[in-house]
Write a structure and sequence with these properties.
Largest sheet: none
Radius of gyration: 37 Å
Number of helices: 2
Helix content: over 70%
Shape: rod-shaped
Number of strands: 0
Strand content: under 5%
Structural class: mainly alpha
Distance between the termini: 94 Å
């Protein structure tokens, strides 16, 4: 018996009359192996892309964290500078904010 490939000889051709069940089973086994290999390749590709995305997200988060920390330190330095230059105004602002917070808290009860 001669083995014929399903990809080179159509199933309805007269030369395919000699195809046995064993030949078809071998082709199915080959297809299953190809599908398993393709599935593994796709899984590996997905895993690598997920890992790349996670690294990129982590890098962006670290960048935003550094930028936020820098902005907070800058605001703190500006506040300290304002307090040193105008202590009476700073004290008045703090008292006003405290008074407003106290009014809001007592009105919620």
């Amino acid at each position: 018996m001669s083995k014929t490939s399903a990809t080179t000889t159509p199933l309805n051709s007269p030369s395919n009359s000699n195809v046995s069940v064993d030949d078809l089973a071998d082709q199915v086994k080959g297809l299953k192996a190809d599908i398993a290999e393709l599935t593994k390749s796709l899984s590996d590709y997905g895993t690598s892309k997920t890992s790349e995305a996670a690294h990129a997200a982590r890098a962006k988060a670290e960048e935003y964290g550094r930028a936020g920390r820098d902005k907070a330190l800058e605001a703190q330095m500006q506040a300290e500078d304002f307090i040193h230059k105008q202590p009476a105004t700073a004290l008045g602002i703090a008292a006003g904010v405290g008074f407003l917070v106290g009014m809001i808290m007592t009105s919620r009860r």
